[in-house]
Known about the structure:
The chain is an alpha+beta fold.
Amino acid sequence: MPYNYDDQNIFAKILRGEIPCNKVLETEHSLAFHDINPAAPKHVLVIPKGSYVTYDHFAQIASSEEITDFVRAIGKVCKILEVEPSQGGGGFRAISNSGEAGLQEVPHLHVHILGGRNLGPMISKS
Length: 126
Ligand code: 5GP
């Protein structure tokens, strides 16, 4: 089934400047901002500026430039948040909830970067 991007989603509105965000980083193809309802002491969302619904959607059709920019933006956010294990940070978790089973709330690709405490097991087994 093809992806239908809903341009009225909240992150599309943030990208258009219609609602504010607490920006962490902006690059040519990506934007990172603090999650409005943080699940950890450090919780930032990284999104591509393009109209992609999920990670797999992005992986299938984004340009090499967009993909490189997005992956590098995630790395830069880890540096800004000081969570890089190699630099004495406490580590982090990168999560991209996708679709129904992933309980994705906002239908614009986003990667959560979480850190600042022990994040516990990856998922519940129930
Ligand atoms: P999902 O469940 O889709 O993976 O995560 C969506 C995330 O977006 C949630 O963690 C939620 O707190 C965050 N979020 C929802 N609306 C807004 C908003 O208007 N601004 C910001 N900064 N985050 C939002």
